[in-house]
Amino acid sequence: MPHKWGLVVDLDRCTGCEACVVACRAENNIPTAGDDQAARGRTMQWIRVERYWEGDFPNPSIRFQPVLCQQCDDAPCEPVCPTYASYHTPEGLNAQVYNRCIGTRFCANACPYTVRSFNFFNPKWEMPLNLQLNPDVSVRSVGIMEKCTFCVQRIKSAEIQAEAEKRDLKDGEFTTACAQSCASKALVFGDLNDPDSEVSRLAGSHRGSKLLGELGTKPNVTYLERGTWQDAKNG
Amino acid sequence: MQRTAEQIEQDLVWPIFHTSTKYKVAVALASCLVLAGVAVYGYQIWAGIGVWGLNSPVFWAFDITNFVFWIGISHAGTLISAILRLCNATWRRPVTRCAEAITVFSIIIGATIPLCHIGRPWLAYWMIPYPNQRGIWPNFRSPLAWDFFAISTYLTGSVIFLYLPTIPDFATARDAATGLRKKIFRAFALGWQGTPRQWQRLEIAMHIMAIAIVPVAVSVHTIVSWDFSMTLVPMWHSTIFGPYFVVGAIFSGIAALILTMALLRKFLHLEEYLQPIHFNNLGKLLLTMSLLWFYFTFAERLTTWYGNTPSEMDVFWQTIRLHFAPMFWTMVFCNFIIPMPLLAIKRLRTITGTAIASCTILVGMWLERFLIIVPALDHKFLRYTWGTYRPTWVEDTLMAASFGLMTLLYLLFTKFVPMISIWEMKVGLQPHGGGIITTAPSHGKHHGLILEGPLPTDVPE
Questions:
Q1: Which of A25, A113, B72, B282 has the fewest Cβ atoms within 10 angstroms?
Q2: What SS3 string covers B114-142?
Q3: Do A114 and B382 touch (CB under 8 A)?
């Protein structure tokens, strides 16, 4: 059976530490936009931690919501790309083929989650940051759209390794950079087609829901609702 | 005042051969704007599209606003001219050519804007379906691919539609010209002799084009609107957009036409040809379109408000009451409240009155496109991603350059083609549906209306 990659975000566990954001940046050669560009709304990130406040000072409560590409099965970004740069792989990933991208930015407008980052300029890595680039991930140039790939380079190398050893992939054998770095294990990655995988178990939780699920984009990322002490007491 | 065929010919060929200082200054100014645009475009390619004010989430703004605006303007000509020809409205005669020219130039400008706005403009040709080493076609599901086909079809059709009725006039100019000009006009006149057979073929060809171009024009702006409505973006995903955009396009197109006619009348001394009646009639059309535009805007807003979907209401209030409200209400003033009295009251529906209304409508329709694109993008679903947009000097310059390019192309065109169809004006001299006509051509022997048999025009009978 082909794999169907998915991710679960447990909002109860997320502390908003942004380790996932840093790990993703290191793994995927995401350039830093710089403070000037960031102030103009051009931060480059494939995963972000959204912060929402509830209540007023002095007792506001804060909620964190990590948002990355939802890897939708019915992705609004895909049909609008005139050059097939935004493309659905047989394993259900929303791939972004950088070499095909001519930079119409239509996909980013069509994406309801606004998770696509655009290279407004050629990226720069000052010495010695250029030495830490991941050789498994291509570096993007100006005018190209990019976004979370579910660490497709890790998926591919694990699959190749398993095939070479003539065995099936094991759950937890590899994971994405964000999930790997998450200290509180709020992010869990795996194969949704494997009924015994942790991600399948969690995605089936009654706390699970999809971000903007009402839009019918069929995301492969599941959010587990944050509970309260009241909920816990009531079982 | 009724003019004779010779006078018509002299009056209308005259601007081609006489260049005033004012004209030269205007060409120089327009060229400066165009050159500035070219320079800025070069800078943008060198530095990256980041020199624009775009950001996440506002990935489209001035670029697509101007694209929709210019493609909208292009509906002036072809559509109006085709409809007036098909309806056999005889007052159309002095109007059609300047309208058709607006169409061709504004499509050209509209089509260049996407080339500027994409991130890697040097790869724009990947939109063209051709067998290539990449082994893929363009994605035919993408509205941008539809745009490519729609606009290239429209441009081709409009060029033919402009060119066909110009052939006899090229012949007139050919006979009046000397030297290099004569050679150029001869090439464009395609050996026009004015034989009954040629007139008949011209008539058939124009009739076919007039019928064919109407659905093309309607489909073009519908497809442009689908760039927006085929997405899930709040206030973009709407079934009303197709007709709404077509109405808006014709609306802004007529405004552009009236303004151009007023300028041509003044600077080419065409007072005898572009008369108050033409402005009056086009003014009535403009009034109709203004009412239609208001109806569509009202229907769109009212249904959104009743639907009360949270994501749409965020955008709705941004435009009606919050950040974009000043622009929104300026738009309503420019498109409806100011033009209404100017166009509805007969005494005010003069050349000046319609020209003023046209100016405000052009501003209003530009704002309309901006207000469709930007507020929706910067208030998409997740509040955390909300943003703002402010253009940079690069976008401002490119926009100014697009107006400069329109002016320049139009100015150059007036030196190349009689801006009013000479032969159609001559046909107008004849009693309607007259039989054999013989007009004495002033120069040359072959271009005039020396006809036996039915009238060559009033295209469809």
A1: A25
A2: HHHHCCCHHHHHHHCCCCCCCCCCCCCCC
A3: yes
Nearest to B241 by CA among B255, B225, B254: B225
Question: pLDDT tens digits, residue range B338-361?
Answer: 999 999 999 999 999 999 999 999
For the residues of B406-451, what is the DSSP string, one character each? Answer: HHHHHHHHHTTS-SS-HHHHHHHHSPTT-S-EE---SSSSSSS-EE
Of B49, B53, B144, the CB nearest to A106: B144
Name the residue among A52, A112, A144 with its Cβ closest to that of B381.
A112
Give backbone dihedrals phi and psi of A223, rounded to 5 degrees, phi first.
-105, 130
Q: What is the pLDDT of residue B427?
A: 84
Name the minimum distance, in Å, from the CA of A231 to any CA of chain B. 26
Tens digit of each residue's pLDDT (9 = 90 or more) over B69-115? 999 999 988 878 898 888 888 888 889 998 999 999 999 999 999 99
pTM assigned to the model: 0.93
Q: State whether B49 and A114 contact (CB < 8 Å).
A: no
If you write DSSP's letter for every residue of B70-126 in order, what string do you get?
Answer: HHHHTTTHHHHHHHHHHTT-GGGTTTHHHHHHHHHHHHHHHHHHHHHHSS-GGGGGG
Q: Are B363 and B47 in contact (CB under 8 A)?
A: no
Q: Which member of A40, A100, A118 has the closest CB to residue B119?
A: A118
Q: Whole-number mean pLDDT of chain B?
A: 90
Would the CB atoms of A83 and B139 count as touching at under 8 Å?
yes
| Interface residue of B44, B55, B64, B233 to substitute, partner A, most A CBs within 10 Å | B55
More confident residue, B85 or B406: B406
Select from A52, A65, A109 the Cβ nearest to the Cβ of B60: A109
Q: Hey, what amino acid is at A127?
A: M
Of A194, A217, A214, A208, nearest to A8 by C-alpha is: A208
**Residue in A65, A114, A143 nearest the CB of B56:** A114
Which residues, listed in sequence order, are joined to residue B152 by a DSSP beta bridge?
none
Report d(CA B436, CA B70) in Å as an integer. Answer: 43
Average pLDDT over residues B273-286: 94
Quick one: which of B441, B456, B452, B458 has its CA closest to B172?
Answer: B441
Helices (H), B308-350: 310-320, 325-332, 339-344
Residue B295 token pair: 């109806």
DSSP A76: T
Q: Which helix (H) or strand (E) holds A24?
A: helix A19-27
d(CA B387, CA A40): 9
> Do residue A109 and residue B377 have CB atoms under 8 angstroms apart?
yes
For residue B304, the distance in angstroms to the closest alpha carbon of chain A comes to: 17
Which amino acid is present at B308?
A: N
Identify each DSSP E strand in B138-275 by its residue range: none
**Cα gap B400→B392, rounded to integer Å:** 13
Burial of A218 (0-12, 13-18, 19+ CB in 10 A): middle
Residue A122 to residue B47: CA distance in whole angstroms: 8
**Does residue A62 contact residue A51 with C-beta atoms inside 8 Å?**
yes
Contacts of A52 in chain B (CB under 8 A): 383-384
Half-sphere exposure of A76 (CA within 13 A, CB side): 27
How far away is chain B from the Cα of A132, in angstroms, using its nearest Cα? 25
